[in-house]
Design brief:
The complex is a heterodimer. By secondary structure, chain A is mostly helical. Chain A contains three helices and no strands. Chain A has one domain: Methane Monooxygenase Hydroxylase, Chain G, domain 1. The two termini of chain B are 38 Å apart. The model of chain B has no long low-confidence stretch (mean pLDDT 83).
Chain lengths: 121, 343
């Protein structure tokens, strides 16, 4: 196997090891901890009174616009990284190209700002 | 060290890497909890902190783990049991994988991949999924609200985090973390190469943005609205008890340690000490200690902010990310690019 693939195999193995260690700790804990489930213990916490209504109630997700903007900028970051590593080779050409790219994105941010989407509602 | 590693079979080498990696996650986490959360916080608040378990309470954390092991593992009746139990694992895996990209010496690395820093940023954002799983599966209003707040915060601050790193990548010209350290060791600050080029000098804005974003990613005060105990009873952690709660707790402090090490590697020169030859075998011996010292320095800053600033409001938080940090980091990228091409 090439060194490249071996590095990634190490990554996978380490993830597995993490799960294993934590699982072992949980297993150890299940041997020594008490298990006395009661009606009250199964209830969720709601400031000490009985929980009211549906637990998965509809709530106003105020951040969905932010989530959309996040996708926009995260994709942008993916494009910026390869450019950043090769800037020396591209020189002024690469700089102007990326300046235009970032300008267009900043324009998007400015538009959302102007529209009041970045305000807490 | 090179010779020893070269002679070993792949499985032997990997076993050592895995065990050292495990220690590299847990030991800094324990140190941070004891040194900063227990002791520094106590001294800042004019009290002694733990004093009973071991000399100066140094065994307190082990005592806590022993306590949490014996606690009953409660799952709410209405909860989505499988997702509820999986959530801490997702958060922990994100933390554990993050440590692998950090090198501790010229030949001391866990994985040496060309996309190193990009991998770290990608892996660190997995924890959002774990937090959302925890909040949703708990079937509790506080948990859901906390998880939604956490998601909004983590994705907002991931952008400054990523964009701040771009400045470093432009200067180093590589995504490989080992090469970024080398670039700092052999670099020059406007022609002066006496101390190399730790990017904190040429990328100070990036360093500041990175630290603020890390603070928010850790959901620590002053950015701890998702786990605000007085409003949301610790948010997405409300329904967790016993060992599963401890897993989130360990995850938070391990992430604090690893992000500090990452900041030390990207901005303070990692395992390198100015004035010495970076290819010297000496660094395979003192490298981990140097990196650990620099990590503690950055962690000290993070926890200092944590203990001294009051909590922001939710709208102030989003405003800071979108209207200050992101435009600032975009400007930082452009200026860094221009300077790179001009010089």
């Amino acid at each position: 196997m090439s060194d490249f693939l071996r590095s990634w195999l190490t990554l996978v193995l380490f993830g597995g090891l993490a799960v294993l260690i934590v699982g072992a700790l949980l297993g150890l804990s299940s041997l020594i901890r008490p298990q006395r489930q009661t009606e009250q213990k199964g209830m969720i916490y709601e400031s000490g009174v009985d929980p009211q209504g549906d637990m998965w109630s509809q709530s106003n997700i105020r951040y969905y616009v932010f989530a959309l903007m996040f996708v926009l900028f995260d994709v942008e970051a993916v494009f910026i990284f390869p450019w950043a590593t090769r800037l020396e080779a591209y020189g002024v050409f690469g700089l102007v190209e990326m300046a235009i790219f970032i300008f267009i994105l900043a324009l998007g941010l400015a538009y959302a700002w102007r529209k009041g989407l970045l305000r807490w509602v | 060290m090179t010779l020893i590693l070269a002679e070993m079979a792949y499985w032997q080498e990997t076993s050592i890497r895995l065990l050292v990696g495990l220690a590299a996650v847990l030991l800094p986490a324990g140190t941070l909890v004891y040194l900063f959360l227990f002791k520094m916080m106590s001294f800042m608040q004019s009290r002694l902190g733990p004093m009973e378990a071991g000399p100066y309470g140094s065994m307190q954390l082990l005592a806590e783990v022993g306590k949490f092991l014996q606690k009953e593992d409660l799952v709410p009746r209405a909860a989505d049991r499988i997702v509820f139990k999986l959530a801490p694992f997702v958060v922990l895996i994100s933390t554990f994988l993050l440590v692998l990209v950090i090198p501790a010496g010229p030949d001391l690395w866990f994985i040496d991949v060309d996309t190193g820093i990009f991998l770290a940023l990608a892996v660190s954002s997995i924890s959002v999924i774990g937090i959302l799983m925890a909040g949703w599966a708990s079937a509790s209003k506080y948990s859901l609200m906390g998880a939604l707040r956490a998601t909004g915060q983590l994705i907002a601050y991931e952008l400054p985090l990523v964009l701040a790193v771009v400045g470093v990548v432009i200067q180093a010209g590589t995504l490989n973390v080992q090469n970024i350290v080398m670039a700092q060791a052999t670099g020059e600050i406007f022609g002066y190469g006496g101390i190399g080029n730790p990017f904190i000098f040429t990328q100070f804005v990036g360093f500041a943005i990175f630290l603020i974003a890390v603070q928010a990613e850790l959901t620590q005060p002053p950015f701890d609205m998702p786990v605000a105990e007085s409003e949301l009873v610790t948010g997405y952690l409300t329904e967790y008890s016993g060992l599963r709660f401890l897993m989130f707790f360990i995850g938070e402090f391990a992430t604090a340690g690893i992000f500090s090490a990452l900041a030390a590697t990207l901005f303070l020169g990692g395992w390198y000490v100015p004035g010495l030859d970076p290819t010297d075998g000496l660094f395979n011996v003192i490298g981990p200690a140097v990196l650990f010292a620099k990590m503690l320095l950055v962690a000290f800053l993070i926890f200092w902010f944590r203990f001294t600033y009051p909590r922001f409001r939710e709208d102030q938080l989003q405003k800071l990310a979108w209207k200050v940090l992101i435009p600032l980091s975009l400007i930082n990228i452009v200026i860094t690019g221009v300077l790179k091409v001009v010089f």
